UniProtKB/TrEMBL annotation:
Protein name, as recorded: Retrovirus-related Pol polyprotein from transposon 297
Biological process annotations from GO: DNA biosynthetic process
Superkingdom, taxonomy of origin: Eukaryota
Domain Reverse transcriptase: 1-151
SUPFAM superfamilies: DNA/RNA polymerases
InterPro entries assigned to the protein according to its UniProt record, in alphabetical order: DNA/RNA_pol_sf (IPR043502), Rev_trsase/Diguanyl_cyclase (IPR043128), RT_dom (IPR000477), Viral_Replic_Matur_Polypro (IPR051320)
PANTHER family to which the protein is assigned, alphabetical: PEPTIDASE A2 DOMAIN-CONTAINING PROTEIN-RELATED, POL PROTEIN
Gene assigned in the entry: pol_3544
Amino acid sequence: MCIDYRALNAVTKVPNYPMKDTQELIFTAGMAQWLSCLDLLKGYYQIKMHDENRVLTTFSTHNGVYQWKVMPFGLSGASGTFQKIMNNVLRSHSSYAQAYIDDIIVYSKTWDEHLIHLKNVLQELENAGFSVKLRKCTFAAKELQFLGHKIGGGKHAPDEEKIAAIKRLERPKTKKDVRSVLDLMGFYRSYILNYAEFATPLTELTKGKNQEM
């Protein structure tokens, strides 16, 4: 369930908490020989709201009026808050485990190390009151998909499904279409030689008020 919290977000002071550099994370984890990816069960819902703040999340339905006891989707500071909490939980394991919001990657050079690292991280999550969604986790793999990339064994590459989606793109007809193309291509800009040179003409097409081209 996602509530429209635009009015609340407009008057909310959001702390400027930095998110992880995904390129650095992909490169670091991709150098490992053993990888595990953990997915937290309903990540945001594992963060409890302070009692005094619950009233701010009040919403109405045909069944009555409710307040969230856990952190809902739609709050402007939710992702930064979650990232800060996960960084704190994994701080003592940061040399072999990192989180990007609710996706956790554990990476190791050897099999024996990986078993220890994985045990440490799972124990830390349990101590902090977090649960993982087993069917969405990948354990002890040589290669796996993480944040839209295939990583492992000293390599990293774009997700093959994303590349297939790019190949299926039709010729953009509106500025909105062009922006969508730029967003998709820009995600993999590190793999495209002279990306800025190719993207500049497309970026120019998005300027101006007229949405048609």
